[in-house]
Amino acid sequence: MPKLKTKSGAKKRFKLTASGKVKAGQAGKRHGMIKRSNKQIRQLRGTDTLEKPDAKIVKKFLPYGR
């Protein structure tokens, strides 16, 4: 069997944890900061884990992530 290719967009945007969860950057931080509260901007820092239905889709693009 040939090797499966990883989607290059997915490998740039997602990481898998040791327990198999998918980490992704927080949504809502790209633009429009002036209309968001300082509290919201502060809480959107860092990464977040995806919910199961979303993680299932992402894992199809990362065949060797485990």
**Helix/strand-derived class?**
alpha+beta
What is the name of the CATH architecture? Irregular
Strand tally is: 3
Biggest beta sheet attributes: 3 strands, antiparallel
Beta-strand residue percentage: 15-25%
**Kindly, what is the distance between the CA atoms of the first and last residues, rounded to a whole number of angstroms?**
18 Å
Net shape: elongated
Explained architecture:
This protein has helices spanning 8-13, 38-43, 52-61, and strands at residues 14-16, 22-25, 47-49. It has 66 residues and is of the alpha+beta class. It has a three-stranded antiparallel sheet. Strand 1 and strand 2 (22-25) form a beta hairpin. The radius of gyration is 15 Å and the shape is elongated.
